[in-house]
C-alpha cells in the first residue's frame, strides 16, 4: 500500500520531534465529491489533522495554529523548527518524497513527465519505543477475564484454589486467570500470592510461556532464597527447556541436602521417562518404593512402566499392591483384569472375568468393565479346554453383558438422531463374538 507524501513527512516529523495532537473536534473537514453520472452524489466527509506547517490564522488561536516555537515566531509569521536540520534540507526532503514536483530553485519537470513517477517512498523504520507502545496497545485491547465473565478478583482467587486443591490440569485457563491476578491484584492477595506464583509457573511451563514462568520463578526466588521447593521449580524449568543434565544435577544437590525429598526423586524418574530410558526409570522407581512403600502413585506409575515394557506379570503384582491398599477403587480392579486378560490362558481369563465383575459391582456404569466382562466370558465359553458347566455359565454371563451394553446405548441415545446407527454398530460388534454352545 502506497503512502501519501504528506503523510510520510508528517510521520517523519512526528518521529523526530513529537507534537501535541489536535483534538478530533478541532479537525477541519475536507469534502471530496465523486460524481457517478450525477453531480453531488457520493459526497463524503474526511477528517484531516491540522498541519503544523500551515499558515496560521490571525491571532494564532485556530486549530491550525502552530504548536511549537516561540511567541515571537508566531506573531511574526515565521515557521517554527519542527525537526532537526534547516528549512532548505526539509524542503529538499519533501521534494524527493514527492516525485514530479519542482523544488525551489530547481529545474522544472518536463511537460510529459508523470506526476508520481518512481517508486513510493519507504516508511521509516519503527523504533524500539514504537514497538513497545504497539505491544502495550495490543495487550490493552485484549479483554480481561474479570470483564469477560463479570467476576471479581475474589472469585478468580477462589477458582484458582479449587483448581489447585482438586488437581485440575487446565493449564491455559490457569495461565489466563493467574496472570491477571498477578498483574492486577497482587497487592490484594496477601500470602496467597506465593502459591499462585507456583501454580501459574507450572501451568506456564505446560503452555510454553517461558517468559511468565521465569517471572514467577524470580519472584519466588526473591521471597524464598535457598528453598528446596523453589529449586525444584527451577529444575522443572530446565526440563521444559530440555536441559535434562542441568535438572538432574540440581535434583542431586537437593537430595544431598535432604535425602527424604520425594518430589526431587520423582522428578528424576520423570526425566528418565522423557528421555525414553524406561529401564533406568524402573530401577530408580523400585529403589524409591523400597523406602516409601505406601506411595500409591509410585506403584501405579511402576505398573504403567511394566506394561509399556510388556512385563505383565510384574505389572499385575504392582496392581495387586494397589488393590490391597485401596480395595474400593474400581479402576484398579478394571486395570488388573485387563492385564490378566492380556496374559491369556484359561486361568487368567477366568480371573480377568471375576475382576471385571468386581469393577462393575463397585461402579455399575463402568462401560469398559462391562465390555471386558463380555469379552472374557465369551472367550472362556469358546475355549475347548473349558468344561461344559463352565461354558454354560460363561454363555449366561456374556448374554447378560450384551443386554446391558444394548440398554446402555439405548438409554444414552434417546435424544440423538443417530441412535439407530449406534445400536446397529453395537449389535454388529456383538454378533462378531456370538457364542454358540458346542
TrEMBL record:
TPR repeat locations: 296-329
Subcellular location field: Endoplasmic reticulum membrane
Family annotation (InterPro entries): EMC2-like, TPR-like_helical_dom_sf, TPR_EMC2, TPR_rpt
Pfam families noted in UniProt: TPR_EMC2 (PF22890)
Source domain of life: Eukaryota
Membrane topology: Peripheral membrane protein
Keyword field: Endoplasmic reticulum, Membrane, Repeat, TPR repeat
GO cellular component: EMC complex
Ranges for region Disordered: 42-126
Biased composition (Low complexity): 63-81, 96-105
Domain EMC2 TPR-like stretches: 231-340
The keyword Membrane is assigned to this record: yes
PANTHER family (alphabetical): TETRATRICOPEPTIDE REPEAT PROTEIN
Family according to the record: Belongs to the EMC2 family.
UniProt subunit comment: Component of the ER membrane protein complex (EMC).
Job of this protein: Part of the endoplasmic reticulum membrane protein complex (EMC) that enables the energy-independent insertion into endoplasmic reticulum membranes of newly synthesized membrane proteins.
Name of the protein in its database record: ER membrane protein complex subunit 2
Amino acid at each position: 500500500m502506497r503512502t501519501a507524501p504528506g503523510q510520510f513527512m508528517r510521520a517523519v516529523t512526528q518521529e523526530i520531534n513529537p507534537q501535541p495532537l489536535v483534538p478530533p473536534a478541532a479537525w477541519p473537514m475536507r469534502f471530496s465529491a465523486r460524481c457517478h453520472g450525477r453531480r453531488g452524489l457520493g459526497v463524503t466527509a474526511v477528517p484531516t489533522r491540522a498541519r503544523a506547517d500551515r499558515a496560521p490564522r490571525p491571532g494564532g488561536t485556530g486549530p491550525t495554529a502552530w504548536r511549537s516555537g516561540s511567541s515571537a515566531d508566531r506573531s511574526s509569521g515565521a515557521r517554527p523548527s519542527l525537526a532537526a536540520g534547516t528549512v532548505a534540507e526539509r524542503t529538499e526532503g519533501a521534494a524527493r518524497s514527492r516525485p514530479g514536483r519542482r523544488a525551489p530553485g530547481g529545474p522544472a519537470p518536463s511537460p510529459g513527465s508523470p506526476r508520481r513517477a518512481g517508486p513510493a517512498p519507504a516508511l521509516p523504520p519503527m523504533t524500539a519505543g514504537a514497538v513497545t507502545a504497539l505491544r502495550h496497545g495490543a495487550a490493552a485491547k485484549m479483554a480481561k477475564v474479570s470483564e469477560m465473565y463479570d467476576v471479581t478478583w475474589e472469585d478468580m482467587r477462589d477458582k484458582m484454589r479449587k483448581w489447585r486443591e482438586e488437581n485440575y490440569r487446565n493449564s491455559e485457563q490457569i495461565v489466563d486467570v493467574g496472570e491477571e491476578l498477578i498483574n492486577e491484584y497482587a497487592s490484594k492477595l496477601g500470602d496467597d500470592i506465593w502459591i499462585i506464583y507456583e501454580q501459574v509457573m507450572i501451568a506456564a511451563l505446560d503452555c510454553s510461556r517461558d517468559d511468565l514462568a521465569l517471572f514467577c520463578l524470580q519472584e519466588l526466588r526473591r521471597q524464598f532464597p535457598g528453598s528446596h521447593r523453589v529449586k525444584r521449580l527451577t529444575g522443572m524449568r530446565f526440563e521444559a527447556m530440555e536441559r535434562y543434565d542441568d535438572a538432574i544435577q540440581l535434583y542431586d544437590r537437593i537430595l544431598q541436602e535432604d535425602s527424604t525429598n520425594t518430589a526431587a526423586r520423582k522428578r528424576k524418574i520423570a526425566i528418565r521417562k522423557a528421555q525414553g530410558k524406561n529401564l533406568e526409570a524402573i530401577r530408580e522407581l523400585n529403589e524409591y518404593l523400597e523406602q516409601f512403600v505406601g506411595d500409591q502413585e509410585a506403584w501405579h506409575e511402576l505398573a504403567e512402566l511394566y506394561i509399556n515394557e510388556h512385563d505383565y506379570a510384574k505389572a499385575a503384582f504392582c496392581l495387586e499392591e494397589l488393590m490391597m491398599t485401596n480395595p474400593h477403587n474400581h479402576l484398579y480392579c478394571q486395570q488388573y483384569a485387563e492385564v490378566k486378560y492380556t496374559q491369556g490362558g484359561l486361568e487368567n481369563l477366568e480371573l480377568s472375568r471375576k475382576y471385571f465383575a468386581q469393577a462393575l459391582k463397585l461402579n455399575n456404569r463402568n462401560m469398559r468393565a462391562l465390555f471386558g466382562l463380555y469379552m472374557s466370558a465369551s472367550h472362556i465359553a469358546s475355549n475347548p479346554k473349558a468344561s461344559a458347566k463352565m461354558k454354560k455359565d460363561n454363555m449366561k454371563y456374556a448374554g447378560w453383558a450384551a443386554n446391558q451394553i444394548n440398554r446402555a446405548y439405548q438409554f444414552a441415545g434417546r435424544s440423538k438422531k443417530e441412535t439407530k446407527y449406534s445400536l446397529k454398530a453395537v449389535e454388529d460388534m456383538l454378533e462378531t463374538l456370538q457364542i454358540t454352545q458346542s
